[in-house]
Design goal:
It is a single chain. By secondary structure, the chain is mainly α. The chain has two domains: 348 residues, Peroxidase, domain 2; 270 residues, Peroxidase, domain 1 (Orthogonal Bundle). 39% of the residues lie in helices and 6% in strands. It is built from 22 helices and eleven strands. A three-stranded antiparallel β-sheet has the order 7-8-9. The chain has a two-stranded antiparallel ribbon with strand order 1-2. Strand 7 and strand 8 form a beta hairpin. Helix 7 crosses helix 11, helix 15 runs antiparallel to helix 22 and helix 17 crosses helix 21. The radius of gyration is 27 Å and the shape is elongated. It starts with 5 loop residues before the first helix and ends with a strand. This is Plant heme peroxidase family profile domain-containing protein.
């Protein structure tokens, strides 16, 4: 990737855009609108619920995304791009090529582009998109009760579409009902009203819809990979193309950037009719040759959207600014922090990238910090937080491990959000999560240390405190990679959900492990971390599997597998009690026994203490450093 001549790639893309090919003739002699659609639909699959989707991975090439109705005929776009992809080889990913081509298309048609974050790494299959549907896995885990009105976690109302049904909710051409769905679905991608209206009108400045006749596009790639979407109207291409089933452009200048879309929308009276493709769309006698979709009309039927439509209709400078930034956010949302971006056109960190201050040049003496942490572990501060006791000695090591784990385990590999860099666990919403009960008091225990050292970030201190506790508990040196900095608020974690939900569902545990990019062995090993009985009680549970949280051992697995467990309700929470003993496990612990793969790993660890400690510490270090990015694949701690 470092060897790529990005300017040369842009030049090749620009030449391709206006070189029409007989197998798929360019509308108006320009493939630009086609490529904008491809980039939008590749990126627009992203959803904030779990970070799945987006163009990183280039999974639009694979099932299930490849055969989505909204991706009809985009196989031809990739055929057009193949000579460029072949020329630059593996250094140019499909994900980067698709997005850069969309950018170049916008630029060459006169539109504004804010920047380009290169660094997407191609997947080898579409497995990371399976939860988006339609797949058996999606139907089992996240069923949609009414296709056309899908709720979160879906990013769309209709499986196989990017946002909403353009024809209207459940195919009914009622713009007033479409507006709430538009707002909801764009919100599921973290877009506000300004960004939504800028993207829709800016995107629809270009190109046309295709629905030459009601016969449809023919079989999808999944149905007929040898001849996908041949088109059943005439020749199936050019004027006979069927893609979405709607027909016509939004403006009279479909290959030139403008704010005409907003003026056309506002300055004409629109009536619904069934177009040649058999779908409801809108026409106006005062704007012949153009059309609108129900979802377009919805922008004029909602007061907030309407004010923005009027703004952009009268002020193209405002549109240029808002569209370029919203397009960059759309196409870069799944790439994580700006530190993962490479290339010559990376703009400064944007708010959606959750920027952090730079690492100070001079860091504290961490050996001295570690010594102070060790004092804090055994210093009774029950006026701040009740400690655990073992052999009548106060012990805070397990709560320091708990704090570090809760901070770091917010990381999700799907869109590179979360992690402990920034220490956002200090602020809402994380500080208010039930699984983070009393973390404010744990932070108070560490506050004198944090205030004693210049340039000691909370993020480094939280991770180091947990690591020091584990060093002592395992009698093993553990590597520590400093340099984290602190966020000023919790805004970067508003999209995250707590992983430590104490779920008994094997499915939930597997989803959590996958989001954290943990292997089965790493996930099971980390389940055996030392736990604080006092902290469990503060979280609403009665007891623990051990009264000695000061030692990291395989006792967790020995106890889990060696006892008979019965469900008990003590208070509001379900726990499992060992028959005849005051030993307790959480539902998620028993799920390790119930899953055959997890069980086999637990048996390994129960049989070999040294194996467990070795694999646990390796997984711990991986988790603590998961968010220390250095380019798209690098890590500052390796």
């Amino acid at each position: 990737m470092k060897a790529i001549d990005w300017n040369a790639v842009k030049a090749d893309i620009a030449a391709m855009l206006t070189t029409s090919q007989d197998f798929w003739p360019a509308d108006y002699g320009n493939y630009g609108p086609f490529m904008v659609r491809q980039a939008w639909h590749c990126s627009g699959s992203y959803r904030t619920y779990d970070g799945h989707g987006g163009c990183d991975g280039g999974r639009q090439r694979f099932e299930p995304e490849r055969s989505w109705a909204d991706n009809t005929n985009l196989d031809k776009a990739k055929t057009l791009l193949w000579p460029i992809k072949e020329k630059y080889g593996l250094g140019l990913s499909w994900g980067d090529l698709i997005i850069l081509t969309g950018n170049v298309a916008i630029e060459t048609m006169g539109g504004p582009v804010f920047g380009f974050c290169a660094g997407r790494m191609d997947d080898y299959d579409g497995r990371a998109s399976e939860l988006l549907g339609p797949t058996t896995e999606q139907a089992d885990i996240y069923p949609c009760a009414v296709d056309g009105d899908c709720k979160r976690p879906f990013g769309t109302t209709t499986i196989g579409l990017i946002y909403v049904n353009p024809e209207g909710p459940m195919g009914k051409p009622v713009p007033e009902l479409s507006a709430p769905q538009v707002r909801d679905t764009f919100g599921r991608m973290d877009m506000n009203d300004m960004e939504t209206v800028a993207l829709i009108g800016g995107g629809h400045a270009f190109g046309k819809t295709h629905g030459a006749c009601p016969l449809g596009p023919g079989p999808s790639p999944k149905e007929d990979p040898s001849n996908p979407w041949p088109g059943l109207c005439g020749t199936g291409r050019g004027k006979d193309t069927f893609t979405s089933g709607f027909e016509g452009p939004w403006t009279a200048t479909p290959t030139a950037w403008s704010n005409y879309y907003y003026n056309v929308l506002l300055n004409n009276d629109w009536t619904s009719h069934v177009g040649p493709g058999g779908h409801y769309q809108w026409q106006s006698p005062t704007s012949p040759g153009t059309m609108m979709l129900t979802s377009d009309l919805s922008l004029s039927k909602d007061s907030s959207y309407l004010s923005l439509v009027r703004k952009f209709a009268s002020n193209i400078t405002a549109l240029n600014e808002q569209f370029s930034r919203a397009w960059y956010k759309l196409t870069s949302r799944d790439m994580g922090p700006v530190s993962r971006c490479v290339g010559p056109w990376v703009p400064p960190a944007q708010p959606f990238q959750n920027p952090l201050p730079p690492t100070p040049t001079v860091l504290p003496d961490f050996e001295k910090v570690k010594a102070d942490i060790r004092k804090a572990i055994s210093t009774d501060n029950k006026n701040i937080l009740q400690p655990d006791y073992f052999n009548n000695t106060p012990y805070y090591g397990a709560v320091f491990v708990h704090l570090a784990w809760q901070c770091a385990s917010t990381f999700r590999h799907s869109d590179y959000l979360g992690g402990c860099n920034g220490a956002r666990i200090r602020f809402p919403p994380q500080s208010l999560w039930p699984t983070n009960a009393a973390t404010g008091s744990i932070l108070q225990l560490l506050q004198p240390i944090q205030q004693s050292y210049v340039n000691l970030s909370w993020a480094d201190l939280i991770v180091l405190a947990g690591t020091v506790a584990l060093e002592d508990a395992s009698q093993t040196a553990i590597s520590f990679c400093p340099g984290r900095t602190d966020a000023m608020d919790g805004s970067g974690s508003t999209l995250l959900r707590p992983n430590g939900n104490y779920s008994a569902s094997i499915q939930d545990l597997r989803i959590a492990a996958a989001l954290m990019n943990l292997t089965d062995r790493e996930f099971v090993a980390l389940m055996g971390r030392i736990r604080s009985p006092a902290q469990l009680q503060r979280s609403g549970f009665f007891g623990s599997y051990t009264n000695n949280p000061t030692v990291l051992s395989n006792q967790y697995f020995v106890t889990l597998l060696g006892e008979t467990w019965k469900p008990v309700m003590i208070g509001k929470n379900l726990e499992y009690q060992a028959v005849g003993k005051e030993l307790y496990m959480l539902p998620m612990d028993l799920a390790i026994r119930w899953d055959d793969t997890f069980l086999a790993i637990a048996q390994d660890f129960a049989s070999d203490q040294s194996m467990f400690v070795r694999e646990f510490l390796s997984a711990w270090v991986k988790m603590m450093n998961a968010d220390r990015f250095d380019g798209p694949t690098g890590n500052l701690c390796k």
